[in-house]
Amino acid sequence: MFSKILIANRGEIAVRIIRACKELGIRTVAVYSEADANALHVRFADESVCIGPPPSSESYLNIPGIISAAEISDVEAIHAGYGFLAENPHFAEICQSCQIKFIGPSPESIRLMGDKMAAKTLMKKVGIPVIPGSDAIVKTKEEALKIAKKIKYPIVLKAVAGGGGKGMRVAHNDVRLVSAFYTVQSEAENAFDNPDIYIEKYFERSRHIEFQIIGDETGRIVHLGERDCSIQRRHQKLLEETPAAGLDPKLKRKMGEVAVKAAKAANYVNVGTLEFLVDEENQFYFMEMNTRIQVEHPVTEMVTGIDLVKEQIRVAAGEKLSFKQDDIKPAGHAIECRINAEDPDNNFMPCPGKIVNFYQPGGFGVRIDTDIYPGYTIPSFYDSMIAKLIVHGKNRHEAIQKMQRALDEFILEPIKTTIPLHKKILQNPTFLKGKVYTNFVEELLGTSEKVTV
User: Fold this and answer.
1) What is the pLDDT of residue 453?
2) Are 299 and 292 in contact (CB under 8 A)?
3) pLDDT value at residue 450
4) Judging by DSSP bridges, how do beta strands 4-7 and 27-33 pair with one another?
5) What does the pLDDT read at residue 160?
6) pLDDT tens string 239-264
7) DSSP category for residue 384
8) Residue 164 has what pLDDT?
9) For the packed helices 89-97 and 107-114, what is the interaxial angle rounded to 10 degrees?
C-alpha cells in the first residue's frame, strides 16, 4: 500500500479522497491555487503545495507544477479525482515516466475510451449495440446533412473529445444542423483543443443509464449496478439515483453483462463507468465510457456498502478485488442531488460569493459531500457545484421523502443555489412515478427555464 498520495484536484472530491486515504493510513498532499488557500482540502491534508494563480490553466491543469509538487513531497501516487486532469492520457503517461503511480486506468485505456469514435468502433467490433450515426469523424456540413437524411432528425452533434455536457448540440432540421455544426466545432476546439465531431441519432424521450465497473490487474472486472442519470439540464446531470425506477430486471442484467464485456475489451483496470442510452422501446445503446471516478459515485456506495475511492487506491497498489460479481447485492434506494451555486430564476447564472449562514442536513441515511463552511467564499474560477446531498432509504418512496426533508433543512445564505429546482423535481407527479427521461427538466421548466417553488 502507498504511504503518501497527492490529490491533483480541489473541492468536495479532494476532501472525499483525503478521507479515504486517512482511513487507509495513507498520508496526503493537497495542491491548491491561490484562490483556494483557505479551502478545506488544504486544511485536511497532511501537507499542501500552492501550484499557481486562480485560473485552472495555471494551477489545476498545470502538469509541470503538479509533478513538481509530487516530486518535492516524495509521493508514490497521484489521484486526480474527476475533471481537470483525471482523463488526460498525457498526464497519466508523465506520472508513469516519473515513477509515480497514476490512480486510474492505463494511459492507453484513457486514450482509447476518451476518443468517442474509437470507443464506438471498439464496441461495434465486440458486438455491443451503439447509437445509429456516423462511422467516422464528420468533416463538412455537406457530410453532416447527408448523414442526417439517412438516420432522420432529430440528431445530436458531439465533440469526439467531449465530456461533461460540453460540445453537444441537438438539431431538428437542416438549418439548425448547419448552425450547430460550426458551433460544436468551435466549442470542441476551445474546450478540448480538438475540433473533430461526429453525429448520432437523438432520442427525445430516452433514459441515461450508466453502470459502475471496477477491474483489477488480474483481469477480474465487476459491475456494481446501474445509476439513472436522466435528470439533466443541457446535458449536465442534476440528480442521480439507483436502482433505476421501472427498468426491467432482465434488461438491467443484460446491460450489466455488456458493461463488463466492454471494459474487458478495453483491457480496463480500476474504476470506470459505462454510459448507455435506453429508448422508449427499451433498446439500449452504448454512449461512452468515463475513465475516472464519477461525481455520482456515492449513490452506488450507499446501496452496495463499497467504498469506491478506497477500492481505486487498493487496485492501483496492485491488490486484487476483495469481491466477486455474486457478492454484489445492492440494498435499498439512493438519490443524489447536486447543489450548484447557480440562480435557477436567472438562467442558472453562477453565484460565487461569501457564505454567511450555513447548515447542512443530517439524520439517518443522509450524507453530505462538500468542502464549504460558514465564512467560505465560493470562487468564480471553477465549476459551480459546491455540494452533493445523498440519501438512502429502504425503497424509492422513502428515499424521496428523506431527500425532500433534507433539502428543506439545507441552509446556504445568501448564495443562490439549485435547491429550489431539486424541490420542484421531487414534487413532480411524473418524477414520483419514476417516469424520467433526459429532456425532463427542459419540459418541467419550459422555454423560459424559470423556477418557482
Assistant:
1) 31
2) no
3) 39
4) parallel
5) 87
6) 999 999 999 999 999 999 999 999 99
7) S
8) 63
9) 170
CB-based contact 80:86 (threshold 8 Å): yes
Residues tagged active-site = 292
**Is residue 403 within a helix (H) or strand (E), and if so which, with residue range?**
helix 396-409
pLDDT tens readout for residues 174-222: 999 999 999 999 998 888 888 999 999 999 889 999 999 999 999 999 9
Residue 348's φ and ψ, nearest 5 degrees, are: 60, 40
How would CATH label the architecture of 207-445? 2-Layer Sandwich (3.30)
Query: Quick check: 215 and 269 in contact, CB under 8 A?
Result: yes
Q: What is the pLDDT of residues 97-116, one digit of tens each?
A: 999 999 999 999 999 999 88
- Tell me which fold the domain 4-103 belongs to: Rossmann fold (3.40.50)
CA 17 vs. chain centroid, Å, equals 15
In the chain, what are the helix, strand and coil shares in percent, each to the nearest 5?
Answer: 35, 30, 35
- The predicted model gives 309-318 an average pLDDT of 98
Among 172, 168, 173, residue whose Cα is nearest residue 204: 172
Cα distance between residue 7 and residue 13, in whole Å: 9
Please tell me the pTM assigned to this model.
Answer: 0.93
Pull the grid cell for residue 216: 483489477
Residues 12 and 286: their CA atoms lie apart, in Å, by 29
Residue ranges of domains in the chain: 4-103, 128-201, 207-445
Q: 128-201 adopts what CATH topology? A: Dna Ligase; domain 1 (3.30.1490)
HSE-CB for 105 with a 13 A CA cutoff: 31
Cα 152 from chain centroid (whole Å) = 30
